[in-house]
C-alpha cells in the first residue's frame, strides 16, 4: 500500500476519450507503473531494513518534503487547517499508512511482492462491504464482485494453508487491506483539509509517526546497524519516497481533476499485474498456479465492482491499494 489519502472532488465521466491529451496518458502510465512497482521496492527494502522503521522513514521524509514544498510555494497558508481537519488527517493517515501500508511492509518480509499486490487488490471489495454497513445498499453485481473476489482470496491463500508460504504474512496483508479500506471509507465521512497536498502531507507525517512508534514498540531499533543495510535497500527506500509517495501521488491527484474517474480507476486492476510481472522478472518470484488463478479471480471481481460502482451517481469507483492510496481519495489503493 503505497499511498496518502485525500478526498478531492472527482471529475465527471463525461466527454469522449479523444479529448484526453498526452499529459493524461503520461500521468496514467506513471500511476500504473510506479504504484505497481512499489511492492517490488518494499520487498527489496525489507531485505536489510526493519519493517515499520523503514515505512516510518519513507512517510516522514515524504511528508516533510511535501510540507516544505507547500511552504515555499504557498507560504504558511498552504498548511493552514482547522483542529478537526488536522485530527481527521491524522486518523486517516494512521489507518492507511500505519495500519494499511505498515502491515503490508511487514507482511512482505515473508510474502512475495506479486502475491502481496494481488491480495491488496481486494481493497475495493471491502469498500463495498463498508458502504453497505454505512446504509448504502450494494447492487447485485457489486455483491457478485465481492463474492468472486473472496473466492480469489481463498485461492491466493492456498499456498499459506499448504505451508509453502508463511500464513502470518498473508493474514497481515489481508488485515492491512481491511484497515486501508476503513481509512478510505472514514476519509469520506469526516472533515478533511480542502488542500489535497496539505491533507496528504499531514497524513504522511501522522502515518510516519505511527510507524515509528510501532517499530520502536516491536524493538526494531535493537541491533539496528545502518552499515549493514545494503545499497539496494537504500535505493529502494529513496524510490518509495520520491516516486511512490510524491511523483505517483501528484500524478494521481492531478488525474482526478483532468481525466474521467472511470479511466483513473483502472489502476486498481493494472497495478497487481505490473507487480506480479516485476516480481517475476527482477526477483524471480514464481508464478504458481494458485497465484495466477487466484489473481485473475480477484482482478475479475474488482473489475466487476469498479464497473458497477462508477455508474452509481455521486459515488467513486471504490478501487484502491495499502502500498495507498498515495491518495487514496475514495477508495483504497494499494498498501505498497
Short summary:
The chain is mainly alpha-helical and 336 residues long. It has helices spanning 22-45, 51-74, 83-107, 113-120, 123-133, 140-156, 158-162, 167-187, 196-217, 231-258, 261-264, 267-282, 289-309.
Describe this structure in words.
With 336 residues, the protein is mostly helical. The chain is built from 13 helices and no strands. The termini are close together.
Structural class: mainly alpha
Helix-strand sequence: HHHHHHHHHHHHH
Chain-averaged pLDDT: 82
List low-pLDDT spans. Answer: 3-18, 314-335
Give the helix tally: 13
The percent range for strand residues is: under 5%
C-alpha Rg (nearest Å): 18 Å
Descriptive keywords:
67% helix, 0% strand, disordered C terminus, mainly alpha, single chain
Layout of SSEs?
Elements: H1 22-45, H2 51-74, H3 83-107, H4 113-120, H5 123-133, H6 140-156, H7 158-162, H8 167-187, H9 196-217, H10 231-258, H11 261-264, H12 267-282, H13 289-309
Helix pairs in contact: 1-4, 1-10, 1-12, 2-3, 2-9, 2-10, 3-8, 3-9, 4-12, 4-13, 5-6, 5-8, 6-13
Amino acid at each position: 500500500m503505497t499511498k496518502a489519502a485525500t478526498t478531492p472532488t472527482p471529475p465527471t465521466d463525461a466527454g469522449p476519450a479523444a479529448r484526453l491529451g498526452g499529459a493524461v496518458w503520461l500521468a496514467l502510465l506513471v500511476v500504473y507503473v510506479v504504484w505497481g512497482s512499489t511492492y517490488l521496492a518494499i520487498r527489496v527494502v525489507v531485505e536489510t531494513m526493519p519493517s515499520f522503521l523503514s515505512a516510518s522513514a519513507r512517510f516522514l521524509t515524504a511528508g516533510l518534503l511535501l510540507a516544505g514544498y507547500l511552504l515555499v510555494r504557498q507560504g504558511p497558508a498552504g498548511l493552514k487547517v482547522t483542529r478537526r481537519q488536522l485530527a481527521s488527517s491524522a486518523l486517516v493517515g494512521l489507518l492507511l499508512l500505519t495500519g494499511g501500508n505498515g502491515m503490508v511492509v511487514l507482511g512482505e518480509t515473508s510474502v512475495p511482492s506479486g502475491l502481496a499486490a494481488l491480495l491488496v487488490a481486494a481493497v475495493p471489495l471491502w469498500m463495498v462491504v463498508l458502504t453497505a454497513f454505512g446504509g448504502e445498499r450494494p447492487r447485485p453485481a457489486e455483491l457478485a464482485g465481492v463474492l468472486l473476489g473472496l473466492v480469489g482470496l481463498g485461492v491466493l491463500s492456498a499456498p499459506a494453508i499448504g505451508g509453502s508460504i508463511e500464513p502470518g504474512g498473508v493474514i497481515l496483508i489481508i488485515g492491512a487491506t481491511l484497515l486501508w479500506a476503513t481509512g478510505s471509507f472514514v476519509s469520506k465521512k469526516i472533515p478533511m483539509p480542502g488542500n489535497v497536498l496539505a491533507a496528504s502531507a499531514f497524513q504522511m507525517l501522522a502515518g510516519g509517526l505511527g510507524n515509528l512508534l510501532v517499530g520502536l514498540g516491536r524493538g526494531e531499533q535493537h541491533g539496528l546497524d545502518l552499515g549493514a543495510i545494503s545499497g539496494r535497500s537504500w535505493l529502494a527506500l529513496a524510490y518509495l519516497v520520491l516516486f511512490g509517495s510524491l511523483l505517483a501521488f501528484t500524478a494521481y491527484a492531478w488525474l482526478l481533476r483532468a481525466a474521467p474517474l472511470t479511466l483513473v480507476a483502472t489502476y486498481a486492476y493494472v497495478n497487481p499485474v505490473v507487480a506480479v510481472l516485476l516480481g517475476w522478472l527482477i526477483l524471480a518470484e514464481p508464478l504458481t498456479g494458485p497465484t495466477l488463478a487466484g489473481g485473475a479471480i480477484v482482478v475479475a471481481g474488482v473489475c466487476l465492482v469498479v464497473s458497477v460502482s462508477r455508474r452509481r451517481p455521486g459515488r467513486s469507483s471504490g478501487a484502491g491499494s495499502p502500498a495507498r492510496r498515495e491518495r487514496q481519495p475514495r477508495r483504497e489503493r494499494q498498501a505498497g
